[in-house]
Amino acid sequence: MVAIGKGSQQEVMDVIAGMGENLVTINAGEMKRRGGSLKVIG
What we know:
The protein has one helix at 2-18; strands at 30-34, 37-41. It is of the alpha+beta class. A two-stranded antiparallel sheet has the order 1-2. The chain is elongated and about 50 Å long.
């Protein structure tokens, strides 16, 4: 089972590497709106 997981992980890493420099990253966090401004917590 570990070998399957490692192979899948490498495949995902290869796909991400193939995307190049123009990559958008999304970080998990809680969005709060207060007084018209948007704040990310987390």
